[in-house]
TrEMBL record:
GO terms for biological process: proteasome-mediated ubiquitin-dependent protein catabolic process. Its main location: cytoplasm. The keyword Iron does not apply. It is found in: Cytoplasm; Endoplasmic reticulum. Residues 15-136 form the PI31 proteasome regulator N-terminal domain. GO terms for cellular component: endoplasmic reticulum; proteasome complex. Residues 134-274 are annotated as: Disordered. Belongs to the proteasome inhibitor PI31 family. Residues 149-172 have a biased composition (Basic and acidic residues). This is Proteasome inhibitor PI31 subunit. It comes from the Eukaryota. Plays an important role in control of proteasome function. Inhibits the hydrolysis of protein and peptide substrates by the 20S proteasome. Also inhibits the activation of the proteasome by the proteasome regulatory proteins PA700 and PA28. It comes from Monopterus albus (Swamp eel).
Amino acid sequence: MAGLEVLYTSVAGGITCPQDAVMCFVHWEMIKSGYRCIGSGDEPRSSDKKSELLPADWSSNKELYSLRYKAKDSDTQLLLKGITVDSTLIFNLMNSSTQQVSDLTVNISDYVDAEQLHTFDRVFKDTNSFSEKVKNQLLPAQDRPSGQRPEKKSQREEEEEEQRRRGEDSDPLRIPSRHPHRPHCPNPLVPPFAAGGADLDPFGSRGGGGMIVDPLRSGYPRSGFDPSSGIPDILPPGAVPPGARFDPFGPIGRHRPGPDPDHMPPPGFDDMFM
């Protein structure tokens, strides 16, 4: 941890609680990653300047730490805030340009000995683990170790993935996705002004499907029954025009002699004792 001791010694007079030591450690990790502190608070000031040191009022508020950083070789600005919640210190690091935010929660007693605040050799515990935690969870993605950065696929990998996807689409045994792919371009076989065609051609004579469901034209096997020839004892021949839609209103070929039983009450209908 070269350089941390010098930094810690320079601000030792302002370190009065364990969270001060944690904040000092996180600040040094920011410095090592190529950032420089330009001041405290949320708003820029005329006195802002890049420095590896902490500003004079960095620990004036023990409940809310707020420091601003700027990249050494670019205009990237970061806002670091540390909020004390019980025995933890919650950090939020926001990129002022992209509004991207990363966070880190630190259990103070895991990394700082509250009884050794003014003894640098003993104040920090498990510094290697603490340093890795800051790098992998708090620092911006481009500054994290290579194992934590999102890897960009090479052109060859993208081509292989595209070929694999095409192979899956052509596999007849593959179960289709529940969210089928929908093309973004219009179907060139459909006329551009075909909207509402079903209303203008209800029987689908132009191959558009129509809007009337005709059980005799639905594509299912027909029984060979032709309503235009009439129904014995029910409809005379010609009552239904040839090719017209016809919904049967009873079993074909039925013949019930005498009155319809459905029109007569059952025997003894008025007898309350039955």
